[in-house]
Write a structure and sequence with these properties.
3 helices
Amino acid sequence: MTVPERELAEQLNQRLRHVVLMLRRATADQPVTAQQLSVLGSLEHGPRRMTGLAAEHGVRMRR
């Protein structure tokens, strides 16, 4: 991936996170929780594996 492609991907990632937050607020009729914000913040610098996110946030994954 070239530098401009990476920058574009990072910008898209950030905008998609904002869209997720707006949709959650608009459709769920409830605020975004602190844990949800924390997980979204963990994704700010790019994609992560679910196992890594789960371990970081103290969530057990089902098999």
